[in-house]
Amino acid sequence: MTGDNLQFPHKLTLNERKSLTMTGVTEVVSFDDTAVVLHTQLGTLEIQGEDLKLKTLSLDGGQVAVDGHVCGLIYEEPKAARGFW
Amino acid sequence: MTGDNLQFPHKLTLNERKSLTMTGVTEVVSFDDTAVVLHTQLGTLEIQGEDLKLKTLSLDGGQVAVDGHVCGLIYEEPKAARGFW
Question: How far apart are CA A12 and CA A75, in angstroms?
Answer without folding.
Answer: 12
